[in-house]
Design goal:
- Helices cover 24% and strands 26% of the residues.
- With 170 residues, it is an alpha+beta fold.
- It has two domains: 96 residues, no CATH class; 65 residues, no CATH class.
- Strand 4 and strand 5 form a beta hairpin.
- The chain binds protoporphyrin IX containing FE.
- The site of protoporphyrin IX containing FE has 12 residues, from helix 3.
- It is found in: Membrane.
């Protein structure tokens, strides 16, 4: 990761282009490039979050990369791994104002979901687990391509609760 002066802000980025988002308030130099005043600049968040020097083997789904053991043997967030939030919500004056709500909503949704459901690979007709493949669409934002999986409630109690909530919604 490198630092680039963009207008009056300092932005951590690996690639700049003149297409979208931040508008330079003065002429600026990034490496050998002149970025004239008024240029629109977008940070390549995908490249930042796939920087192999910060996140080795970045395309592998490996949430453990963010964890370490404390001297007491407890699991904790590894302070040596750059925080994903540094880049995911943008930068400077135009940083996403919904980031706190988004982050808390994602945390609550995932924690509730994982508490109530077990997610496993789907099985074929012979009972062999089907590998989801891990392919992604390409675009301005990337989503996984559709894949099969098996979602089951972890306990009968959860199942009753979920069925009751679904009935109440009808
Ligand atoms: C995971 C969820 C979200 C992600 C990853 C995300 C990411 C981003 C990013 C990258 C930007 C551009 C920042 C920049 O120009 O540097 C942005 C802008 C913005 N986001 Fe979000 N966002 C999320 C959720 C939300 C939510 C929940 C809200 C509102 C409740 C929201 C409202 C906005 C607004 C209004 C802007 C434009 C800010 C401006 O141009 O001044 N976002 N977001």
């Amino acid at each position: 990761m490198r630092s680039a002066k963009v207008g009056s802000q300092t932005t951590r980025t690996t690639m700049l282009c003149h297409t979208y988002t931040h508008s330079c308030t003065t002429d600026d130099i990034y490496e050998e490039y002149l970025i004239p005043e008024g240029s629109i600049v977008v940070a390549n968040i995908h490249a930042i979050l796939h920087d192999p020097t910060a996140y080795p083997d970045p395309s592998t789904f490996n949430p453990e990369r963010l964890l370490c053991r404390t001297p007491d043997g407890e699991l904790a967030l590894d302070p040596n791994v750059p925080d994903l939030l540094h880049a995911a919500f943008g930068f400077g004056r135009r940083i996403c104002p919904g980031r706190f709500m988004a982050y808390q909503s994602i945390w609550l949704t995932l924690a509730s979901f994982l508490c109530a459901f077990r997610i496993e690979r789907a099985k074929d007709e012979r009972g062999v687990p089907i590998d989801p493949g891990g392919e992604y669409d390409w675009g301005f934002t990337n989503c996984p391509k559709p894949f099969q999986c098996m979602i089951r409630s972890r306990t009968e109690e959860y199942e009753t609760l979920i069925m009751r909530a679904a009935r109440d919604e009808e």
